[in-house]
Amino acid sequence: MQGVKRKLVYVTFYELIGLCMSTLGLAYLSDTQASHTGPLAVMITTIAMLWNLIYNSLFEYWESRQAKRGRSVARRVAHAIGFQLTLVVYLIPLIAWWLGMSLVEAFLVDLAFIVLVPCYTFAYNWAFDRIFGLPNSALAAA
């Protein structure tokens, strides 16, 4: 599976799993009900989904221009960490506003996700590539 179809399947399942983790995790970490964190998790998931599509397109554009093809552990780690660190810029202010807390408190709430999401992203990408194969950008040139 390649192209837009691959990206849509990838991001849909990635974010559905992330939505469940976010709703429950935010409720636990902020000591509130899931009914209060659920809409926040939907906003976070929507932002993450849009950013995921953009980020992966940019990453694959960069990746296709590299002399060395394939997805090494180092490249997968860089992808996962890069995605999470750039996403935090968008999410910390939203979490602070929604939960009525300072940016520092929101960062502390999000810290668990900052650590968990790159691990989840790494594992998800590995499993996705094993199931659906590598994208053209990671395949050796013909």
**What summary fits the major beta sheet?**
none
Query: How many helices?
Result: 4
Query: What's the helix-strand series?
Result: HHHH
Question: How many beta-strand segments?
Answer: 0
Q: What portion of residues belong to β-strands?
A: under 5%
Number of domains: 1
- Assembly annotation: single chain
Cα gyration radius (Å): 16 Å
Word description of this protein:
The chain is an all-alpha fold and 142 residues long. The protein has helices at 3-30, 34-64, 73-99, 103-132. The chain contains four helices and no strands. The two termini are 18 Å apart.
Features:
142 residues; mainly alpha; elongated
SSE diagram, text form:
Layout (H helix, E strand, L loop, with lengths): L2 H28 L3 H31 L8 H27 L3 H30 L10
Helix pairs in contact: 1-2, 1-4, 2-3, 3-4
Summarize the structure.
By secondary structure, this protein is mostly helical.
